[in-house]
């Protein structure tokens, strides 16, 4: 595989590395909230961090100190890629620069529906927002193709400037602890050498297209280009998703050396991954699109993945009874003939999200794969 140019070169081409000082005066906000779908329990909260964490930590590929040793500079310094801390939103009709096939990251919590365009987050990676009254951080790592949401309490999250397995390492501005995005778990770093090992309370962010999201949620709010930092969100420094090319091409190489390599899939082929303290599972998104219902094993527990066609996404459920499910015209039908929305089967749903295969495999080397 060909090696890609450095990340600094990518970002310097569009001026992202120098955005941090473009505008001051944006301030964080916040108050506590609770998660709604997780791979682990969110009932027990840690007292060591001033924001929600889970009672059990998510699986790690190595000890926290070893993960720190694998961290590398991504090019820009701490906050050199500036988070959005005071986001503005517009209506779907007023949204600018979005073509039907452009990726957006959708959040539906309580009564709020919000879309975060990939074209904006590619230059900020973190949006500290409030959704349905809960302070959250909607995050995106372009190098691993992962969009994830976390509850942030009274603090905000920023971009540390470091990467592990090509994945964004966030830091919280309350304790300056490092948090690799996909792992969602604290590790030591230079600004907090010995944090307790905890996992963030996370929620589902749906990777879909503007056309699909806006048709499903015509009343959605859309993150405005008026971020105060940059005025050109038409140029992605890494490539394009509409059509998919450049760094995002499935066969192209990761920018930095990944934690491991596995040739069963092209490096950036998209999988829908789910993990719990018991293990991890990945379903090839293309195969799920074709077959609609896939069965698998997650740490010894049977799971089922189902396709949701409206947003072109998938959901993963624990299914210890191995219930028979069929896909019929956008609905999931169980053995009794009852129909279900793919997003709400009467089973325990495990948080799942899109990721590039190399990233998922690097973080979860024991993952099962169905692709």
TrEMBL record:
Residues 25-84 are annotated as: Disordered. It comes from the Archaea. It holds the Pfam family DUF3179. This is DUF3179 domain-containing protein. The lineage of its organism: Archaea, Methanobacteriati, Methanobacteriota, Stenosarchaea group, Halobacteria.
């Amino acid at each position: 595989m060909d090696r890609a140019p450095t990340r600094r070169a990518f970002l310097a081409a569009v001026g992202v590395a120098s955005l941090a000082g473009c505008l001051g005066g944006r301030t964080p906000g916040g108050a506590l909230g609770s998660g709604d779908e997780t791979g682990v329990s969110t009932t027990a909260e840690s007292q060591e961090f001033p924001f929600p964490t889970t009672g059990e930590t998510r699986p790690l590929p190595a000890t926290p100190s070893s993960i720190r040793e694998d961290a590398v500079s991504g090019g820009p310094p701490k906050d050199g890629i500036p988070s959005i801390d005071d986001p503005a939103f517009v209506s779907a009709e007023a949204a600018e620069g979005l073509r039907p096939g452009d990726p957006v990251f959708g959040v539906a919590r309580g009564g709020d529906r919000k879309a975060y365009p990939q074209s904006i987050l590619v230059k900020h990676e973190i949006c500290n927002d409030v959704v349905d009254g809960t302070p959250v951080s909607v995050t995106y790592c372009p190098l691993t193709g992962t969009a994830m949401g976390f509850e942030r309490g009274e603090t905000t999250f920023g971009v540390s400037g470091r990467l592990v397995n090509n994945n964004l390492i966030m830091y919280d501005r309350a304790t300056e602890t490092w948090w690799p995005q996909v792992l969602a778990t604290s590790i030591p770093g230079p600004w907090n050498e010995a944090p307790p090992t905890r996992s963030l309370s996370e929620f589902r962010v749906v990777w879909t297209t503007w056309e699909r999201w806006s048709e499903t949620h015509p009343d959605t709010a859309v993150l405005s280009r008026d971020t105060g930092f940059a005025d050109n969100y038409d140029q992605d420094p890494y490539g394009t998703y509409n059509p998919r090319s450049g760094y995002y091409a499935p066969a192209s190489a990761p920018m930095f050396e990944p934690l491991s390599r596995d040739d069963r899939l092209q490096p950036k082929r998209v999988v829908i991954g789910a993990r719990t303290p018991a293990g991890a599972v990945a379903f090839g998104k293309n195969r799920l699109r074709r077959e609609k219902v896939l069965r698998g094993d997650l740490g010894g527990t049977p799971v089922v993945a189902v396709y949701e066609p409206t947003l072109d996404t998938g959901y993963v459920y624990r299914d210890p009874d191995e219930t028979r499910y069929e896909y019929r015209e956008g609905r999931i039908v169980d053995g009794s003939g009852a129909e279900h929305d793919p997003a709400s089967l009467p089973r325990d749903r495990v948080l799942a999200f899109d990721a590039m295969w190399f990233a998922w495999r690097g973080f979860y080397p024991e993952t099962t794969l169905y692709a």
